[in-house]
What we know:
5 helices, Methane Monooxygenase Hydroxylase, Chain G, domain 1
Amino acid sequence: xxxxxxxxxxxxxxxxxxxxxxxxxxxxxxxxxxxxxxxxxxxxxxxxxxxxxxxxxxxxxxxxxxxxxxxxxxxxxxxxxxxxxxxxxxxxxxxxxxxxxxxxxxxxxxxxxxxxxxxxxxxxxxxxxxxxxxxxxxxxxxxxxxxxxxxxxxxxxxxxxxxxxxxxxxxxxxxxxxxxxxxxxxxxxxxxxxxxxxxxxxxxxxx
Length: 207
């Protein structure tokens, strides 16, 4: 009887230990390793960077469409509106460059995140090409505006003092708006170059 009781107690003890180990193993399966947690955090950060780049890419499409349309910007107010948009894009691209630099200092080589960093690099190059398009279109607008200003200035002088004052004021406003727009494009190009460089180094560091 004592032997049977001892055997029964031993079986119960072993069964309990088995369940305890099974429970611990199950719990361990749900606990992620620090490396996995870090990777998940990086993926989230890279997706955030990509989201920001996609938005800037869309804004550049809008600027290109406006500059390349048949009518184009018609007055100083329209030109200034495009300039405001380009300033915003440049500011956001600089922000992404800062994020890239931060990621560059913390990313681990061989972390299997190169797929994301390569996509960031691809979008950076896409943005760079579109910034180049904007630069060409703004240069064409400046040339067109200069020729129109010379033509209209001659017409204004022939129209007399009254017409000349109003017309020349408008021409001066448009000329200043175009000059500011050209400066905004230069800043945009600088931001794009910084983005391309930081995206490239981030990709290299992740390989």
